[in-house]
Amino acid sequence: MRCRHGLVACMLLLGLLAMAAPALAHEARPAYLQLRQTDAETYDVLWKVPGLGEDKRLALDVEFDPETVTTAAPRVSFANNAFVERWSVHRVGGLDGTSIRIAGLQATLTDVLVRLERLDGTVQTIRVMPAAPEFVIEATPGRWDVARTYSWLGVEHILLGVDHLLFVLALVILVSGARRLFWTITAFTAAHSLTLAAATLGWVHVPPPPVEASIALSIVFLASEIVHARAGRPGLTYRQPWIVAFLFGLLHGLGFAGALSEVGLPANAIPIALLFFNVGVEVGQLLFITAVLAVMASARRLRLPQSEWSWKLPVYGIGSVAAYWTIDRIAGF
């Protein structure tokens, strides 16, 4: 990485860390609504809302069709900084064709992921946003609805996944030349696409905690490789970055699969949902890389003053944050 990129990369790093700040974390985490059909007209409801501490949560509530009757009083619990409510509802004729509204969603910055599991095994997944807090339960969701929903989920996951973005930022800093960067990112993409599919389809199973710790450790490794390269001791990552990007991409794919498993795949459209979630991840990744390169190009034109040690700020910042994540995640095993 050249010196003139140091300040720019540092600004990008600060922006990513700001995304991860606790003050924003509550708003960034989506709420989750699960409807599990138990007979033709009855559903078990699970409503998970991000907490604002142990005594407060986001002011979000589920409003069913007026003809829907609650048959079991809500049971409330608190875990992992989220409030979980469980109850049952009944509606003559079922919920198909009816509207559900998330009251209070318009006043937040969060989304709601909705998962409806029917008796026949089909699954409908919906992403509800503040601009449109009401949605309709469809008898048979179309393939376009599945593709659109899972594409947005993929984009959202990568752009809110600060650890994944830090890894990509470190690659951009380390790899010089457009062609080398293209093949490096392609290798990373191919690798995490493989493990995302394998883990989501149940062919591979690795517990999430070791995966998350290993992802953080991969960022520490990249940061150290940048330091070694600047000191005149380039390692394998500098000489053949696509090999290392592929190997670590396998780990990151398992991380993506963990996020996808929380939402699940519709039984009647698994290939489409998996494909478009992966497409969404790639779109988000390309948007981020494009933004990074655009900012760096602007900095070159502005000829911002740089000192000889300015390159160390983003590199040591990335490495320090990733080292903290590694220790924290290992301690949580």
Helix and strand sequence? HHEEEEEEEEEHHHHHHHH
How many E strands? 9
The mean pLDDT is 82
Quickly count the helices.
Answer: 10
> Termini, distance in Å?
35 Å
How large a portion of the residues is in β-strands, by DSSP E? Answer: 15-25%
For the biggest sheet, the summary is: 6 strands, mixed
* Structural class computed from helices and strand pairing: alpha+beta
Provide the spatial order of strands within the biggest beta sheet: 4-5-2-1-7-8
Shape: elongated
Q: Which range best describes the helical content: under 10%, 10-25%, 25-40%, 40-55%, 55-70% or over 70%?
A: 40-55%
Write structural notes for this entry.
- The structure is a single chain.
- With 333 residues, this protein is α+β, with helices and mostly antiparallel strands.
- The protein is 54% helix and 18% strand.
- The chain is built from 10 helices and 9 strands.
- It has helices at 5-19, 22-28, 143-160, 162-174, 178-200, 208-230, 236-239, 241-263, 270-302, 312-331, and strands spanning 31-39, 42-50, 61-63, 69-79, 82-90, 99-103, 112-117, 123-128, 134-136.
- The strands form 2 sheets. A 6-stranded mixed beta sheet has the order 4-5-2-1-7-8. A 3-stranded antiparallel beta sheet has the order 3-6-9, with no helix packed on it.
- It is elongated and about 75 Å long.
- Mean pLDDT is 82; it is low at 1-5 and 17-28.
